[in-house]
Specification:
- The complex is a heterotrimer.
- Chain B is of the alpha/beta class.
- In chain B, about 25% of the residues lie in helices and about 30% in strands.
- Chain B has one domain: 3-Layer(aba) Sandwich (Rossmann fold), CATH 3.40.50.
- Chain B contains six helices and 13 strands.
- The longest helix of chain B has 17 residues, at about 40-55.
- By secondary structure, chain C is α/β, with parallel strands linked by helices.
- Chain C is about 25% helix and about 30% strand.
- Chain C has helices at about 20-30, 50-55, 75-85, 100-110, 180-185, 220-230, 240-245, 275-280, 310-320; strands at about 5, 10, 15, 35-40, 60-65, 90-95, 115-120, 120-125, 130-135, 140-145, 150-155, 175, 190-195, 210-215, 235-240, 265-270, 285-290, 305-310.
- In chain C, the strands form four sheets. In chain C, strands 7-11-6-1-4-5-12 form a seven-stranded parallel beta sheet, with helices on both faces. A five-stranded parallel beta sheet of chain C has the order 15-14-16-17-18. In chain C, strands 8-9-10 form a three-stranded antiparallel beta sheet.
- In chain C, α3 (about 75-85) packs across α4 and α6 (about 220-230) packs parallel to α9.
- Classes of the chains: A alpha+beta, B alpha/beta, C alpha/beta.
- The interface of A and B includes residues 62, 95, 111 and 113 of A.
Chain lengths: ~575, ~260, ~325
Amino acid sequence: MANFYTDNKDLAFIVEQTVDWPAILAWKETFGEGDCPWADADEAKATFIEMLRDPVGELAANRIAPRAEEVDDIGCRFENGDVVFPEALRRNLKDLCDAQLMGMTIPRRYGGLQFPETVYTAAIEIISQADASLMNFFGLQGGIAETIAQFAPDELKERYLPRMSTGEYTGAMALTEPDAGSDLAAVQTRAKDAGGGLTAQQDPATGLWTISGTKRFITNGCGDVILVLARSEDPEKKGGGRGLSFFLVEKNPRVRVRRIEHKLGIHGSPTCELYFDECPAYLIGARGMGLARYTAWLMLAARLAIGAQAQGIIQAALVEAENYARQREQFGKPIRELPQVAAMLADLHMLAQASRAVLYAVSEIVDLHQGAEARGLREETRRYGRLAEALTPIAKYYTTEVANRIVYDALQIHGGNGFMQEYPIERLYRDVRITNIYEGTSQIQINWAIPRLVRGDLDDLTAAMAAHTLADADLARLQEEVNRCHEIYRAVIGWLREKDAPFREMVGPQVIDMFVEIYAAWLLLRQAERWEYKRRVAARFIRRLGPRVAMNRDLVLNARMETIEP
Amino acid sequence: MALTIAVVAREVWDTRDLSGTVLDENGRLRPGALPTRYEPEDLNALEAALRLKDAQGATVTVLSPGEVRQVDVAREALYRGADGAVRIAADPDELDDAALGALLAAAIRKLGSVNLVLVGTAVPDTAGSLLARHLAQALGWPAILWVDAIEETAADRVIARRAIEMGYESVEAPLPALLAIGVALLEDDPRAPRPAKAMLKLKLKKAEVPVWTPAELGIPDPAARCVTRRRRREPVPPRVIETRTVDPENEAELRAMLDSVRKGA
Amino acid sequence: MSRVLVIAEVADGVFNDISLQCLAAARALAGPEGEVEAMLVGASVRPHAARLAAGGADYVTVVDDARLATYTTEPWLAAARAQLAAAPAAAVLLPATTIGNDLGPALAASLGAASVVDADGVAIEDGRPVAWRVGFDRKVRTTWAPEGDRPLVATLRDGAAPMPGPDAARAGTIRTLALDEVLAGGGFLTKVVRRDVAARTVNLRDADVIVAAGAGVGSPEGVDLVRRLAAALGGEVGATRAVVDAGWLSADRQIGQTGATVRPDLYIACGISGAIQHRVGMLDSRTVIAINTDPNAPIFRSAHYRIVGDLKAVIPKLLKLLS
């Protein structure tokens, strides 16, 4: 029987051989104490692997994947003010609840599994391979629940987290508004206290807030627990992002779904327009910190999840392309044997693995950051926090862009058949398109990352990667090649320090590509130390790295602001 | 009467898509040549038991003959929601269905108050006969075989739908009874039995699975209960099918294929 | 060997002619000097007794009773035990159907006899009956024998023995047993409360060409294409259990574990993935063409011609070429 964990050799390799579980767990668990279910890291690791195999891989391959076509065909509908899920989606959700997977990262004291982010990332990848749209229930649950666990008062945690752990409640994050998409500081939704008036005032008697206004493009807006970014402060006194606070709304008659969107893809995920009509809300955390602290935190988690979703789509497309190329015969042989198709497939595998290497390396850093924070290790928290903040948008950018490229070529390998709805690649092609748009477009990710790269937030990390010595002579030669590229990249960054922000943003895509491809190359080399097969992948990747880095350097150095003026 | 269900869980050789030879020169199974799996119809039987438990409440205990080879089926059953599991110390490959049935019947009696036994109808490659029938006989209970769906349970009886050659029939049996579950529970979706439950798996990963020895079951020498003896295993020359791939877009290829098969026919 | 018993099968008024193969196998076990007994249990089964005699049974015992309209284990088992008590046999053979595979092991278990189901053949070795089955993905033949001098109860798959030509001159001795006599106070524990069983109108085993529909046909329209292809080739339409369950084709067209075992010259599998339960019913077809959209469908491993594509596109092309 198929299993989306054991069948995915690269994922299994990463989980079982590259992730530094002892390091992650050293901060996240206290072995043999309290409610920690493990005696040591090995035992925990074995459990993670076992869980990814069954229920996650088992459920994905044998129950969720067979329903993907039906979910996509029927989609979510809006009837009489209610969002109606297709039957197949309801079964998927029930299966996820029955398998007790909805609270994968929620603390054990609230009924969750309290697994590291890296396990969750793998689980999201596996579920998304089966049905990308289901990720928006399974994969966003974690970020929302973690935000509550991290910042909400205890009574809210006790009220919502256990129900989110069982999957009785699902979540939504209501950030976007008709006029505030990428620019969230423009959020208008007015939060006001129960006493009335447009400025935010907390009712001294009840302490209750209400919010009014419209939110748009809200994934799973019909969910039970909605985190809302809303303007609580008088714009005259505190404008922009500083006037925004973070709220929790439980589904109630004062928040209505007005319509759902008809979308290109992810038909199994309802995208809602929400109307809040003096809707009661709980404040989360401190007033005025809505955007800078809580939204930023939530988005970091969500971005990693979208990266994992993209990685799942990559895997699905890879399987489809491989299968098709093996069975389709033209010119008297399977098209797999035609040099152009073989080269395309080699690139698909290589890019898929580069993307996965980055995704899990970043996931591990996010885990280390969370662990350091939980332990109250200030220096480590600062160090890993800085890495996570710079690397998460890069990982999201890279995985989702690579996913788009891979699905594009995977469809191309299908020829005319790929254009037809009979083949799953058609659905993947539509589903993947949102990944580099939502939770921040690729452009927003780049703008987030560029100042951090220029500032040198990742310099320690890259220096360590460059200094790593490989015992194997062939690999060491490849490492030298990567290090040379890194020197070029460093020169470009140095040059950019003299440039203004608009210029840096303009050349951002080239700079990020240079960085992430160099980073991926180092990671692939590390993998090649442990798996013979990876030597070929790393060699192919690095053979193309030099020309690509040189090209991107030239593009940056030759860029001119005036050439983009209308 | 609440249902107290015993479910048989066999770990069997996974003989799909075997490559290479299975037997050594002495006609013995080559160890390592074969993976194992949870017998699929036994897994359906577990699923049927768990659905009864979900629907009306039941206690489900799994009985697994044999030591764990590769897949710990008793534990897998616990992870899916069985209330208990017991391993029966015996080598199922070296016992016939009569001896295995006697051991399982003794275990079921030892569990006490069991009023429904579920087992897959399948005959594993190593088995000569249908375990379900031998087990029912050893228990002295009525049995319904090739069950697709359990339609009704009452205090004193069960009605199950079974698949037969030309359709289906619903058969009623008084409890206690044995149901042998067939290929599928005949639902379009889900087609596959449920996976493990994560929290349960975490909780039960170190749970003890008790082992009952034949002696404890009152059958100190189960081999003496064997009435069917495996005389030998012989390799069967592989049937070589040369598969030609025909491109459906290529009319000439299709025509050549039709000409050739019609000439042959 | 002294005596071999065949428990013949008549289900819903239809005589199962694997029973005749069992008679041939029984004769081979019993030898020319031995006795071949046959038994027939059911309602209105008496008229079939002559076929058993013509097929080689020296004696035929009939238990014919209106209460035996559908098979349940207990009365059949009681009848078989009564017969064996009166005339002990060294081997008992039955067709490997859902009836035979239920009754055979039940009988063996109640007698303490050796039991083999789905046998691909039986023989005498060292003076004792043995039965074998091919398993392990058709790689291994396992032979079982009774421990000591116990009888062997075996159910035979279609084709395990040759079909004997009827010898009308053979009359045999036909006896009857009363149901109440064999039940001897025992009762019917299980009872059939509902049946949804189709009448058999075709016999796929005689067809030279079979075009079979699997779940991949998707709709009655897909089945219609399969029908047209079968008509164009002068063959019969077959089906997997899924297609029968969907109500698109009748149960007598089902091939596989709970359907017919067929060996046509040409077998065209349309939209059949090839689960083992289906493949066991068609593996011995002389030439197999498989049409499926899934390149990894197991059916392709048993196919001489492999067409990866949608049958809705492929069959019209074949029809055009055939017209």
